[in-house]
Amino acid sequence: MSISTPPAFPCGGRPEQLADQLLNAALAGDEHSAIELVVRALDEGADPESILLDVIAPVQGKVGQEWAENRINVAQEHAATSINERVITALGVHPAVGTSITRGRITVACVDGEWHALPARLLSEVLKLRGWRIDYLGAQLPTPHLIAHLHTTGADVVALSSSIATRLPTTHAAISACQAIGVPVLVGGAAFGPAGRYAKLLGADAWAPDARAAADQLARSPLSRPQLDHQPIDDLPHLADQEYTLVTRNSDSLVRTVFAALEDALPFMNEYSDLQRERTAEDLASIIEFLATALYLDDEDLFTGFITWTAQVLTARGVPAQSLRPTLHLLALELKDFPRATRILRAATRTVTTRHSSEAGKPA
Amino acid sequence: MDHTRARTIAEPDADFPWGAAPYPVLVVDVDGALVRRNDAAAVLLPQAAPGAPLVDVAPAWLAAAHRTVHLPGPYGAPDADPGLSGVIGGRRFEAHPSVRDDGTVAWWLVDDTDHQLVRDALHKERKRTAFLAKASSALLSTLNLGRCMDVTAQMAAECLADAALAIAPSRGRRLPVVTCLRGGMPELSHRSVDPDDVPGLGEALRGFPPVPARWIDPSTAPQWLVPEGFGPVGSIVITPLPGHGVPAGALVLLRRAKTDSFSDEEEVFARLFAARAGAAMSAARLYAEQTAITEVLMRELLPPTLHQVSGVDFAGRYRPSADHERIGGDFYDVHPATEGEASLVALGDVCGKGLEAAVLTGKIRSTLHALLPLADDHQRMLSLLNTALLNSHHARFATLVLASAVLRGNEVDLKLTSAGHPTPLIIRGDGTVEEADTRGTLVGAIREVSARTAAVTLAPGECCVLYTDGITEAKGGPMGDVLFGDERLKRALSACAGMTAEGIVEHVQMLAAQWLGNRRHDDMAVVVIAAPRTHHLSAVNGHTRGRFTG
């Protein structure tokens, strides 16, 4: 979310200060203080939208960052997130936040498998403030439920949130399903890549980098009804080669085969505990999942980006990152009949090699 | 003129062999003067005497065409333009020029009036077929009645009339009407009007007996039927929308005074469209009715939303085995305590999945509800439930856990009884995960059931996790064939010490879902009972205002 300086912060206060205070309260699990901070700011005339987007959104971003950098544990992350949720609820019922419905109806949901509901929740609240009638369906919504809901409510627009790239094939199915019943789809979230490149690829009617941009865009021009003769395969003609389908369908046996081969190749794995072995297998499964996603999108960068990130995480975890190269090599052997997979794996191997040699070249 | 005709007839000419050709031929020179013509041309253009300028005796389109053909060099068009055609004397002609050696141009005129009529008819037919195909796919795409009405009104206004109204039958007093002007957006309004005031509308909305499309005199039409700013109405036709056993509504088509009124052909076409729109609208109506019925019946079977009751935190989450369903064979309930008493939590699993299992969960839940006065005595409750299940026609059995929870001071006292169900787990403040010491027989299978109740105390921040075997028997993981299992669950819960009840429930469901990936699974339910955390001043740094201790 972008942080701009909004006009409406009274008493010389700045959203950054309020955000710092809210972050402290959230990390301390102090729900009462957190709610009081926001209620007081609203009492003093702060702009509700600015509190949502310039205070709560950055706080949630920092909570996620603290967790990713291992400074707080999963319990603290959950606690802080649920406090943020409750702060949003408190904001919604504050008397200063009067909302009347002046626009159409929008359904906001997270795609199936997406558990991070807060960005979608923030968008819902911002759109409510802007006068839309909102149906917020929350995290991890199976597509059949979404479609049944749309048939019943006749929403004008669906806003879908997705943060994990590997959910993109599922997201594509959800986008196509909404469009097939004549409802345009706006998407947002980290899954859609830099500048929303995958949003366009998957045929979404609109993409927005954050909740404010989404609300502005919807206010500027209503999304028109999608073309009904559209076929999802038109977005991704490369899927005709079946590589995605075959890799996905056989991912379990791929994990097993490569894992066994990896044990032969890397003698130090014999020393692994059961837990370490499971972690290794999980890493392998997610490498294959990202490879499948890259095949789905025909986007090599998605996979090389993930491999680079994995190398960093493994290094941080004290696992030798050079185990990635044999992994990629063994995968490439298994998938040698798949030209696109081979090309993507080759690019990733180059990345790891460059990275490894540049790491080695650094003075200690 | 007579002289010319006589000459062409009397002296067949090597230079002009077409005197008696069946198609009109005109020979025109470089300056646009008519040189010769044949008999057919004389009949068609009686004034076109040789020597006359073409521009004076032939239609302008032909004279213009001649100038183009005759331009020398790159601008000339010596090859006939196949599109060159126009009207002469009420019929349509194609003109084919051929440039002769002496620089004059012989124009052959081919009457293609009939051909053109056939082409026009074909074009019109194709347009209609395309329109019907488009209408079908737009109407088929939605099961929302409002949207169907929008599509119907908009498409009719686009192709059949200057404005269209889609009207749905209504059980109430107000009639839902979607109005659309050509090129405009459909607009919904609710009219407090009597449809029987408009001739034919009442019958059309009743759907039976079938009535034909009906013309009404624009002057008798009520004002609400004519969109604002429409202007003088030329013709109005009311077409019933045939439904599937239920009335689907009516389509009102309006044309302005200056537009042609409806031809027979157009009326037939409007009926074809109405048949499609009616089918879609009645399907949407059926869907809405079925959804409403399902919604009401399901409300009692859906797991409740849990929250804090009498100072004890409760949270629950349910995932049915099939993604398109919302209920299944797992269930949970929290029955709030009366003052000072314990709240009763029940979580269980009926053998089987889907709707059939869900119906039995409803029965068990209401039986337990009726047995609430005995909530203190878990064994007694279970044995009565067992008898009730054995006496019912369901051949299914169930496992469940009963938990009575009451806040004493800032601790929560729990009584836990398992009837053949996975053992409840306790998360202690330091992350230790304990199994509650309770065991018992499942219910609904054998005459006599017995169970042992465990007493547990939760300190602030500690909690008790009830779950169904859908969680531990989730098969998946990176290799795809490993059970999530008790140990993995305990390990995960151990990292959850201090989390809110809501957070733990969500975390467990998330881990199980991620373990499963896209694989098949059973129903999965989790309930957490937690002693609320008290707030510590030390946990908040000095910058935070408005601190709170509990």
Automatic annotation (TrEMBL), chain A:
Key word Ribosomal protein present: no
Per its UniProt record, what Pfam families does this chain match? B12-binding, B12-binding_2
* Record SUPFAM superfamilies: Cobalamin (vitamin B12)-binding domain
| Alphabetical list of InterPro entries matching this protein | Cbl-bd_cap, Cobalamin-bd, Cobalamin-bd_sf, Met_Synthase/Corrinoid, Meth_synthase_dom
Sorted UniProt keywords: Cobalt, Metal-binding
Q: Residue limits of the B12-binding domain? A: 103-229
Q: What is this protein called?
A: Cobalamin-dependent protein
Tell me what organism the protein belongs to: Streptomyces flavotricini
UniProtKB/TrEMBL annotation, chain B:
Keyword terms of this UniProt record: Hydrolase
| UniProt-listed Gene3D superfamilies | 3.30.450.40, PPM-type phosphatase domain
Question: Residue limits of the PPM-type phosphatase domain?
Answer: 309-531
The answer to whether keyword Hydrolase applies is yes
**What SUPFAM superfamilies does the record point to?**
GAF domain-like, PP2C-like
Domain (GAF) spans 144-291
- Name the source's superkingdom: Bacteria
Asked if the Swiss-Prot or TrEMBL record annotates the protein with the keyword Hydrolase, the reply is yes
Where are the membrane-spanning stretches?
A: none
Cross-referenced InterPro entries, in alphabetical order? Bact_Sigma-Reg, GAF, GAF-like_dom_sf, PPM-type-like_dom_sf, PPM-type_phosphatase-like_dom
| PANTHER family hit by this protein | STAGE II SPORULATION PROTEIN E (PTHR43156:SF2), STAGE II SPORULATION PROTEIN E-RELATED (PTHR43156)
Question: What is the protein name stated in its UniProt record?
Answer: Serine/threonine-protein phosphatase
Q: Which organism is it from?
A: Streptomyces flavotricini
